[in-house]
Each structure stands twice: as C-alpha cells, then as structure tokens.
Write a structure and sequence with these properties.
heterodimer; A: alpha/beta; Amidase signature (AS) enzymes; three-stranded mixed β-sheet; 16 helices; B: mainly alpha; Histone, subunit A; two-stranded antiparallel sheet; 2 strands; 4% strand
C-alpha cells in the first residue's frame, strides 16, 4: 500500500478498496517500525490521526468526501497545530503547545486530510543538513551515514521512506527543494505569497514560503490546490485566483522555451549531477521543449546577499522569544535582564544564536547600509536578472544542489561551507519565484534532482513539466531498499 | 575580518544573548569568517539600484475596525512559564526599598 502515490491512495479510497482508518493505521505502523533508524518525526499523533481517519470514513459514507478526504500526511513542526506540540526543532519551543492552527493546517484539515504527526527539522529552519535540530539529526533513508538535507529534512526523509504519503514543508533558501533532491522526492516551493504564512513560525519573513514534499508532481499539484489562496491573517498573502493545478498542469510542452543559465552549470557542480540534469533536459527536449542558454550574471552574489537578509530578518523575528509569554525560561534568574539573556542563550542552539548575532551586527548603527542596504540592492539585481530571463524563456531548468548528500558531521565545523550548499536554490527565494525539485538519475546510489524555476504564479507549468518527465521515468517511484 | 571580544559582547548584549567565554571565542572566529564571506557584496555595482525589501509589490491592506477574534486570554496564558490572575510574572523590575 505504501508504494502508492497520494493520488493512487485517493483513487483507492474512492473505490472503497481501503478505508482511511486502514490506510492511517498502516502508515502509523510504518512509522513505529522504521522511524527509529531515521528520526524523521518529533511527534506522532496516533490518537488524533485515528479520530480524524474515522471522521473521514464517516464523511465518505455520507457521500461528502472530497478528493483528499482520508489521506494521511505529516506536517513540518514549523506549522502551528492546536493542542499539539509545535517545537520548530528548538529547545526554546520544546514546551510550546500551540493554541491555534496554522492556515495551512486548517485548510488541509478542512479538506479531510489526516495528520500523522510533526516532522523533524533544522532548528527554526536554519540549516541545510537537519543537523541543528534539538531532537537530533535526521538520517537519509538512502544512506544512514548521510544527511537528508534541510531544513525540511524530516518531511523529506519521511516521504522518501514512505512513512507518510506527503508532508508539508517550508522553504526560505532551499529548505524544500534541497532535502527533496537529497532524499529523492518531489518538492515544490510556491511563489512568495501563494500559501499563507499565518501560523508558520517565522524565520525570514520576506523569504519564507510554505509548500510540500510528495512522491510525484501530480501529488504536489493536488496539495497545492488545497493549501494555496488568499488569507487575510497574513499581510503578505496574495489575492490571486487559485487554478485547478491538477488540470492545468496538463499543458503541452511542444515549443516551450527552457532556459539553461550558464552560471548554474559552473565548476562547483558535481559532474554526476550535471549528467543527471542534462538527461532531464534532453527528455523535455524530446517532448518538444527548446533549450535556450541564458545568463543570470549576478548569481554569484546571491548567497552572501541572502545570508545578510535572512540573518537580519531572523534577528528581528526571534526577538519575540523572551522567556515571558511562552517557550523556554531559565531557572531562578536574578533579574529581568538575566531572564531574557539566559533563557535565550539556553533555548537557542549554536546556529540560531550565530544567525541572530550576525543579523544584529548587520543591522546595527554604522553597518546597516554596508550590509543590509547593499544586500537589498543585490537582491533587486537578482530579481532583474530573472525578469530579463523570463522575457526569453518560459521556464528555467537547473540543478538543485551542487553536491550529493554529504556525511553527517562533514560540514558542521564550517558555517560558510554549509551556506554555499544552497547556492542554486537561494536566488529563487530572493526573487520570490516558484521552484520545483524533481528526482533525477541517482549517482553512486545517491539521489539527485533537477530544479525547474518559473515566473510568478506559474506553478502549474512547472508541475506539468514535472508530471511529463515522471510519466517517462520512475526515479520518483524508487524507495530505499530498507524501506521497500 | 577581525572582530574583538568587546564587539562580540556588544552584539550579544543587543541580541539579549549571554555567550560563555568559550562560546565567545568561537563566535569571534565564526562571525569573522561570515563577515569575510559577506565582503564579496562590496564588488556589486549597485549605484542607483533601488533596495528590494520584498518580492512582491504589495500594499498594506486595511480592514474594517471590528472585532474578529474571541477573547482567549486564558488559553494564551496557559502556555506561559509563569502567569497568574491574567498577568505574566517576572523578577521584580523596581527595587523593593
């Protein structure tokens, strides 16, 4: 049963071949048996899951089921879930039980989906390897000595190991697309503003965007339709119509101009990954797409600009953790100042503290223009590069990560080396564009991926290209041997 | 870029963090390496470029000034480390004498 895609589960439920309770129980059992070896869940919500599954089965008997009713999924532990711990991978929120649901959680619940639990992640989504979690690292289901990527490493590993048919995730600089490629699953980061950020714990608010990880592009399309849309509770939510992504993704590829930015295929790129990406491009070319070489000349400045902006926004957003209203409080502080400082020093892990420090510095008097102001101008240049590119091409194809999944501990001592892992995903967040990560031909038994970048609100076209490639290949259907 | 221990302590104070002496050493090294990495930005030609604060041209939305949320003070205070009678408790801010 776990070999199915989300849409195949939907068909089986609709045909009455399986009930939501049976399906939910089978995934809960898989989590129980397998999660010990990969640590992809922080919380498993067995009781609520079974109650939701029973409710879904009743809805179906009453003839009121929608297309997603009764399908289980996992939420990244960055989305607030009423009555369920929402830790964000941090000691700071280890005791935080949210009094409300995030809009994403609320919408998927309203669609009848069943929450299996909350997935592990880098602390406050700050990391590229899922090694900064307070709950320990997540391991890559394809090789337990390697990282699953981050920050949505738990969501990606859970889907790869088929402990959940799909999972929600967030992407600030690559946190959906990079773990997707490291774990061999499909991941979509929608256009900034497409999916509500209400109830999604903030890291860098002008970059954060919610999305999902699933087995196939069609699965992601089905979920996006349920998640996207205007939300008055998020001031940056965009009031833009939500198409039927599933239907719209079936667009013809013939004549589509596929841009290949030469800066994404530079000498940083692993030769094996390059070959896998080129194979995907050749497949689209075979379906009628026309490859066009393009240039995004300011790309090399994207990573430093991103870390200035993200750290600055992080230092401001994380000022809310004061040890007073919720979250960790230190023992027996002498005074209020000590309460603030020691609660924060104890509650945050090393990488989070590092980013708060660097962001505070970059925003401090005398340095603001040199760092933050300059980074915002570079951000503008990067957006302009993309806008010029989209005058010549319809979609951009690129690698997701320059490197294969690396070993645990390999890069933890060198923060800058870790930051550079995201060099191909970060530019997309700076511009606010949608990006899709698709599994491609593995290299040395490890997953690789190809990234499709679209113009604003062009998710359907990305998903359509993804679905067309996935009809010809089965990389997305492969399950790590230990979890088959 | 070389940061002094005093600078690191100053930033920590602004950020309300309290690094230990060994942590401070580590931060001098790490933050220095990160700032060196940021120095690449000085190569960018940004003369006359408008800073970009946000990906989309959005305007601040206004809404009717009416109550949309129920009063859930108790739910919100139930998760506080120390709240009593509707108030958040912290160490004394004013001297008692």
């Amino acid at each position: 049963m776990h070999g199915r895609t989300l849409l195949e589960h939907a068909q089986a439920l609709q045909a009455g071949e399986v009930s939501s309770v049976e399906l939910t129980k089978s995934y809960l059992e898989r989590i129980r048996v397998h999660d010990g070896s990969i640590n992809s869940f922080i919380t498993v919500t067995e009781e609520q899951a079974l109650a939701q599954a029973e409710a879904a089965d009743r809805t179906r008997s009453a003839g009121e089921a929608g297309s997603l009713t009764g399908i289980p999924l996992a939420h990244k532990d960055i989305f607030c879930t009423r009555g369920v711990k929402t830790s964000c991978g941090s000691r700071m929120l280890d005791n935080f039980v949210s009094p409300y649901d995030a809009t994403v959680v609320e919408r998927l619940k309203a669609a009848g989906m069943v929450m299996l639990g909350k997935t592990n992640m880098d602390e406050f989504a700050m990391g590229s390897s899922n090694e900064t979690s307070y709950y320990g690292p997540v391991r890559n289901p394809w090789d337990p000595d390697r990282v699953p990527g981050g920050s949505s490493g738990g969501s990606a590993a859970a889907v790869a190991a088929r402990l959940a048919p799909a999972a929600t995730a967030t992407d600030t600089g690559g946190s959906i697309r990079q773990p997707a490629t490291f774990c061999g699953v499909t991941g979509l980061k929608p256009t900034y503003g497409r999916v509500s950020r209400f109830g999604m714990v903030a890291y860098a608010s002008s970059l954060d965007q919610g999305g999902m990880l699933g087995v196939s592009a069609e699965d992601c399309a089905a979920l996006l339709g349920a998640m996207a849309g205007f939300d008055s509770r998020d001031s940056t939510s965009v009031d833009h119509p939500v198409p039927d992504y599933w239907r719209e993704s079936a667009q013809p590829i013939d004549g589509l101009r596929l841009g290949l930015p030469k800066e994404f295929f530079d000498d940083r790129l692993d030769a094996g990954i390059r070959a896998s990406v080129e194979e995907a491009v050749a497949a689209w070319e075979g379906q009628g797409a026309k490859p066009v070489e393009i240039s995004l000349s300011n790309l090399s400045l994207a990573t430093p600009a991103y870390y200035v902006i993200a750290s600055a926004e992080c230092s401001s957003n994380l000022a809310r953790y004061d040890g007073v209203r919720y979250g960790h409080r230190c023992q027996d502080p002498d005074d209020l100042e000590e309460l603030f400082c020691r609660s924060r020093e104890e509650g945050f892990g090393a990488e989070v503290r590092r980013r708060i420090m660097i962001g505070t510095y970059a925003l401090s008097a005398g340095y603001r223009d040199a760092y933050y102001g300059r980074a915002q101008r570079v951000r503008q240049l990067i957006r302009q590069d993309f806008q010029q590119a989209f005058e010549k091409v319809d979609v951009i194809a690129a690698p997701v990560s320059p490197v294969l999944p690396f070993k645990l501990g390999e890069k933890t001592q060198d923060p800058v080396a870790m930051y550079l892992i995201d060099c191909y995903t970060i530019p997309v967040n700076l511009a606010g564009l949608p990006g899709l990560s698709l599994p491609a031909r593995p290299v040395d038994g490890l997953p690789t991926g190809v990234q499709l970048i679209g113009n604003y609100f062009d998710e359907a076209r990305l998903l359509g290209l993804g679905a067309a490639w996935q009809r010809e290949t089965d990389w997305h259907r492969q399950v790590p041997p230990e979890f088959a | 870029m070389d940061l002094t221990a005093d600078t690191v302590r100053g930033i920590a104070q602004l950020a309300r963090l309290r690094p230990s002496p060994s942590e401070e050493k580590r931060l001098i090294q790490d933050l220095g390496a990160i700032l060196e990495f940021f120095a690449q930005l000085s190569e960018a030609e940004v003369e006359g470029i408008e800073p970009m604060a946000h990906p989309l041209e959005v305007e601040q939305r206004m809404r009717e000034d009416e109550v949309t949320e129920p009063d859930r003070r108790e739910d919100y205070q139930a998760i506080a480390p120390d709240a009593r009678e509707g108030l958040y408790r912290v160490p004394a801010v004013l001297d008692s004498d």
